[in-house]
TrEMBL record:
KW Kinase (keyword) present: no
Superkingdom, natural source: Bacteria
Pfam family, one: MFS_MOT1
Lineage: Bacteria, Pseudomonadati, Pseudomonadota, Betaproteobacteria, Burkholderiales
Stretches that traverse the bilayer: 76-92, 99-119, 131-148, 155-174, 220-242, 303-326, 332-351, 358-381
Source organism (scientific name): Hydrogenophaga palleronii
Name the UniProt record assigns to this protein: MFS superfamily sulfate permease-like transporter
The entry's keywords: Membrane, Transmembrane, Transmembrane helix
Amino acid sequence: MKASAETREVPSAPHELSSATWRGDLGGALGDLGTLLPFLVGFIVVTGVHPTSILLAFGLSMIVVGWRFGVPFPVQPMKAVGAAALAGAVVAGQNMPAVLALAALITGVFWLIAAWSGLARWLARFVSRDVIHGVVLGLGIALIVAGLRRLEGDVVLGAASVVLALVLLGRSGWLTMPVLMAVGWAVGAWRQPELVQALADTPWALPLPELQLPAFDQPAVWLAAISLAVAQIPLTFGNAILGIVAETRRLFPAVALDESRAARGTGLMNLLAGGLGAPPMCFGAGGMAAQVACGARTGRAPIFLGSVLLLGGLLASGQLTALLSLLPAGTLGAMLFVAGFSLTIGTAGSARDKEARAVLLTTAAVSVWNAGVGVLVGVVLEAGLRSKVMRI
């Protein structure tokens, strides 16, 4: 059942850093916005997280990981935490910004312990290449489905944006996201001129992040934060640890990345997020695939996007929030579709027998719902097939 790091590497289609260009990295920096923007706006508008807190946390984290890893390494919101918080489940009636900040601190401590104790690397030893590919495939399908759901309410713009994106990806990948965003903003300004006026009327200010430490003395905040953090752990292990390591080894095999290093990075940036009053963050395999598909090849991509968010948080958090809110659902749906499409095509590079296909597809199917549970199901199914307890 054990699979070494060498066994799990997927050396197909690596991207040489020598092919990097500034325009590719700048265009690729926008590739992950389909995942980032809905949560970013939702946290600010729905849950009341201070714009400066969340923009500083994401901006600083992107700059650091871009510098440390040297490749397009995306920083994303933790989706299970974000979905529960935005839906009001589990934490209804609570001080949402405080709950999210404390959940980030708890998450950070957990993943630092997992990294320094060797737990993350030890667990990864039991996960084969087929299970990892299944997780990545499932995450890609989940992003495509999420994109299609957003397109339902904005079919014409969404369908046109998807077609435009697929055309651009095959020709000038770095133009894909800039063109989609330009079209989206033009349509958004035409549909909602009041948002354009609100953007013009937003005053310029130099706000400070809104720290949440004083609210941590409330027992209800602790209960809600722990429930959110625990629910996220399996998904983080599947996507932000196993998924990002697998995708990095496939696309950039020269980068020294293992599960412990990914867990350590996740822990450190969540301590930063919680300290600034921001929600939990993680890495994402889908974001890396999308950035690379759109032309990114080096750490300049996350550094560029992080710098925009950092400066926006320090100088124009209100303007940046209004500008992001202007993007229509069809544009965001197309961005998610591109991210999912880019992720799924990376899992079809090798031949498999019937049992391996069963493990891959079953893991993928469950991972559409929850990547952590998908890992568990895939490992159990593979063990059962190899021991002949299960037969297909």
